[in-house]
Structure formats: structure tokens, C-alpha cells
Amino acid sequence: MIRRATLPIMLAAAQLAAAALALGRPDPDPALTLLQSGPPTEATALGTAALFTWALVLGWAGYGLVAAVREARSALGRPRVRGVTLLGIGLLILLAGTVRHFTYQVPMSGGSVQEARIAIAR
């Protein structure tokens, strides 16, 4: 049961990652410029196409996630599946905390050079 719920989640994540890699962040400005101005330029046409592609990707990812939630909801009624799910969530929280612990950097906003040297010496 969980395997059937895992596949749509993995596909949605792969689609979103591929769209982010290929298209970058969605920018509605070119599409709004196309609607407000006269003839389309190359930049506004490409921006509008990218925004439309993002809408399609988000729609399909949302559809896959809804299907996965429905499947998982029916499977979570069983005690074993519930326990494995809670264990997985706990491991994800632990992993996120570990990553944050090892990647956290102290922000250097304000202060003097002398204070920075003292902070580095510690």
C-alpha cells in the first residue's frame, strides 16, 4: 500500500526538481507584460511559456500528491503501517536537525573588526 503512495510522491518531487533545474524560478512579470502591452517579444513569449509549464508541472505534482495522500490515508488504518510512518517522520526530523546543525553559520551583521577577531579566536 505504501509503495503505491510512494511512487506519486517521488514522481512529483522529480518533476518539481526538473522544472526548477530547467526553468528556474517562476516569474509572472513577462506574462503580465505580454497581457498589458501590444505585440509579444521573444522575452515575454518565453516567460509566458515558462510560467505555463510551471502551472502544468505544479498541477500534475498536486494531482500526484492528492493521490498519494488518499492511498496513504487508507493504509494508515493498519497499526504496522502507522508505526513505520511515525518512524519515518521521526527520522526525517532527526535528519533535518542534523543537517541544520552542521550547516548553520553564524551571521556576521554589524559589529567591529575587533569583535569579529574575538569571535573567530573562540
Counting helices, strands and paired strands, the structural category is mainly alpha
Main β-sheet description: none
Q: Tell me how many strands there are.
A: 0
Q: Gap between N and C termini, in Å?
A: 52 Å
Report Rg.
23 Å
Into which percent range does the helicity of residues fall?
Answer: over 70%
Which consecutive residue ranges, at least 5 long each, have pLDDT under 50? Answer: none
Q: How much of the residues is beta strand, in percent? A: under 5%
Shape: flat
Helical element count? 5
Give the SSE string: HHHHH
Structural commentary:
The radius of gyration is 23 Å and the shape is flat. The protein has 122 residues and is an all-alpha fold. Helix content is 80%, strand content 0%. The protein is built from five helices and no strands. The chain has helices at 2-23, 29-36, 42-75, 79-103, 113-121.
